[in-house]
Design goal:
- This protein has 321 residues and is α+β, with helices and mostly antiparallel strands.
- The chain folds into three domains: 139 residues, Immunoglobulin-like (Sandwich), CATH 2.60.40.10; 52 residues; 95 residues, Serine Threonine Protein Phosphatase 5, Tetratricopeptide repeat (Alpha Horseshoe), CATH 1.25.40.
- It is 51% helix and 19% strand.
- It is built from ten helices and nine strands.
- It has a six-stranded mixed β-sheet with strand order 3-2-5-6-8-9.
- A hairpin with a 2-residue loop joins strand 2 and strand 3.
Length: 321
């Protein structure tokens, strides 16, 4: 009977604590290249509270998204998103709220960040101290922000992209860039490349660099859907999974109407295979098994991950002897 009383008291205390728990904000990040819209690896995020670092996280391609950052109510937070070779961006999160007891227990703040590579013609020094976005809690406990402020900041970033060159040079660069785009659409690739190289002499930035890559790919026939699929199959059979993954990214980018579901699934599948192969090579067989099993969930009929799982079974038996 005494034990029963203790158990009832413990449960009542726990429920009481849960009932009076403070709500929190779950801040999550997705970080991509602003031009290609592809997920970036090697990104580092720092979370600050009143100017001091209170949490951080980094990711690579294989680990997927960042962990969730938990923010307390009635605090002032800021975050900075870094990647080598890219311009860092920062934001602020004000979690003050007049009636915290009326808030849901968990408030979800998903944050999408697009980074762009550094450019010798740009002056982005103001981004080290000025947030691009200021997040707050809305009337109904949702994430909100000042859209006019964000638009003004985006305009400021655009103006900063050519702050170190004259207006005349920038106008010439813009003219050359859009002439090249028109020539590419009409399949005049050599002429388009000449325009892009001339533009690159004025501003050697990611925008024109990506256009040069695209022009070469178009010229070499890499925009042909059947060719890309055939090359992908060949790479997979050869065990060149990283190369196959890149081809799937191109299929997704250039033929989204025809390939979205199938390609998206295969991108997930190949990501798991690459991860598993890395762990297998490092003899971390437990993690390798996890990723091979994840690959099977995306493509149940694929033979390769099942063959590797059988190899892991053999290794496991040998280790027990």
């Amino acid at each position: 009977m005494e034990r029963m009383k203790t158990l009832v008291f413990s449960i009542s205390l726990l429920l009481g604590l849960l009932g009076h728990s403070q709500p929190y904000i779950e801040l999550t990040f997705s970080v991509v290249d602003e031009h290609t819209e592809e997920r970036l690896d090697g990104v580092y995020i720092e979370l600050y509270n009143n100017g001091e670092v209170v949490d951080s996280d980094s990711t690579d391609f294989f680990s997927g998204s960042f962990k969730a950052f938990w923010l307390k109510i009635d605090q002032n937070y800021s975050f900075v998103v870094h990647k080598n070779g890219y311009v860092s961006k920062m934001g602020e999160v004000d979690t003050h709220y007049d009636k915290p007891d009326s808030l849901p227990y968990r408030i979800y703040f998903p944050c999408f960040v697009g980074l762009f590579p550094e450019c010798e013609a740009g002056d982005y020094s103001f981004l080290k101290t000025t947030p691009l976005i200021q997040l707050t809690i809305g009337e109904n406990g949702e994430m909100t922000w000042d859209k006019e402020y964000v638009r003004n900041m985006q305009l400021k970033v655009e103006n900063a992209s050519h702050a170190k060159i004259s207006d005349e040079q920038y106008d010439k660069y813009t003219k050359l860039y859009y002439e090249a785009q028109s020539l590419m659409e009409n399949q005049y690739y050599d002429e388009a490349m000449a325009k892009l190289n001339e533009a690159k002499e004025i501003i050697d930035c990611s925008k024109v660099q990506y256009a040069i890559v695209e022009c070469n790919e178009r010229k070499d026939g890499l925009y042909n859907e059947d060719t890309l699929r055939a090359r992908r199959i060949r790479y997979e059979k050869q065990g060149k999974f990283t190369e196959a993954l890149e081809l799937n990214k191109r299929l997704k980018k250039y033929f989204p109407d025809n390939t979205s579901n199938e390609v998206e699934t295969r991108i997930d599948y190949l990501s798991m295979i690459i991860n598993a192969e890395r762990e297998f090579a490092e003899e971390d067989y437990s993690d390798a098994r996890y990723y091979y099993n994840r690959a099977v969930t995306f493509l149940p009929d694929a033979t390769y991950p099942n063959e590797r799982l059988k190899e892991l079974d053999v290794l496991s038996k040998d280790n027990k002897k």
